[in-house]
Write a structure and sequence with these properties.
310 residues, binds phosphoric acid mono(formamide)ester, four-stranded parallel β-sheet, 9 strands, single chain, globular, 14% strand
Length: 310
């Protein structure tokens, strides 16, 4: 493929190939000298039109560890503030001959649109409620390393599904790899018709978490609630926040995940988040760098091949 815009077009074999390469990069990231020349001579530009800690930092580190020239655009200080459109900004940067463009944007579909206008490889770092493919891939690598496989697992994705691109990409990926996916949350935060996505839907944590291998918690994404109903945090934590009593319904060896940023005491109890016997939240962050290295390495191979073939 030329771009990584979402999980939807990926074949399970492509997912496995990427995760295998990412596994190798975990070793490089843990080594004393963290350097490879896989992206040497290539230019990577990171354009984040929405806030980010994990994704932006890990894409930057990933590019640098692979030897790319990495530039982080400061979108707050860019000419977008003077009224320049996304497409004009993209065309301007395209004229500087980048090889890899990493883009996060608040509007669903904006990254796909931009990818149609440029000559380089585009990686979606999250677009609106649509997709966050590298998050789902890093979640998949974390699950595979913790459970020893990425199929025939029961995985509960809990909380604000309706506003979550992380949920959407994970539902697609985990479904393609033949897992049983459950969505657990209040009806107001689960999209109508979600049952048609090949998942089971639960409105109760005890039922939804019963015998799960993986419990994935999501943040209440108030910034995307557009003035709609926002639940009280106290009430929400009582019914849907992950604490020891609710986690007891999952399997004894179930792992706890959260993509971050995390709101302790709202969707997850801090004690559970910090419990190194159950929580793999820090491993998710570590796998984020390795997965982004693998994604950029594979896209750069395709880019070089396409250029060699004229
Ligand atoms: N999980 C995630 O995308 O985190 P950031 O918003 O900090 O990048």
């Amino acid at each position: 493929a030329r771009h990584l815009l979402g999980i939807e077009p990926l074949h399970p074999v492509e997912i496995t190939t990427l995760l295998d390469l990412a596994d190798d990069y975990v070793g490089l990231n843990r080594a004393a000298v963290k350097h490879s020349d896989a992206l040497a001579g290539l230019t990577q530009i990171n354009m984040f039109f929405e806030n980010s800690t994990r994704t932006q930092a890990s894409f930057e580190l990933a590019g640098k560890r692979l030897g790319a020239d990495v530039m982080n655009m400061s979108m707050q200080a860019s000419s977008i503030k003077k009224g320049e459109t996304l497409i004009d900004t993209a065309l301007t940067l395209n004229a500087m001959h980048p090889d890899l463009l990493v883009v996060r944007h608040p509007h669903s579909g904006a990254v796909d649109l931009l990818a149609q206008k440029v000559n380089c490889a585009v990686l979606n770092a999250g677009d609106g409620r649509h997709e966050h493919p590298t998050q789902a891939l890093l979640d998949a690598l974390t699950i595979r390393r913790a459970k020893g496989r990425l199929h025939r697992l029961t995985i509960a994705i809990c909380g604000d599904i309706a506003h979550s691109r992380v949920a959407r990409s994970n539902i697609l990926l985990l479904g393609k790899m033949e897992n049983r996916v459950r969505l657990v949350g209040p009806p107001t935060l689960i999209p109508a018709g979600a049952e048609d996505w090949g998942v089971e839907v639960y409105g109760d944590m005890a039922e939804g978490l019963k015998d799960c291998d993986v419990v994935m918690m999501l943040r209440l994404q108030k910034e995307r609630m557009d003035g709609g109903f926002i639940p009280s945090e106290r009430e929400y934590f009582h019914r849907f926040g992950l604490d020891a009593a609710k986690l007891a319904h999952a399997k004894d060896d179930a792992i706890v995940m959260h993509p971050g940023p995390m709101n302790r005491g709202v969707e997850i109890d801090g004690t559970i988040a910090d419990d190194i016997n159950r929580s793999v939240i820090q491993e998710q962050v570590e796998m984020g760098v390795a997965v982004r290295m693998a994604a950029m390495d594979l896209l750069a191979l395709n880019l070089r091949e396409a250029r060699a073939n004229g």
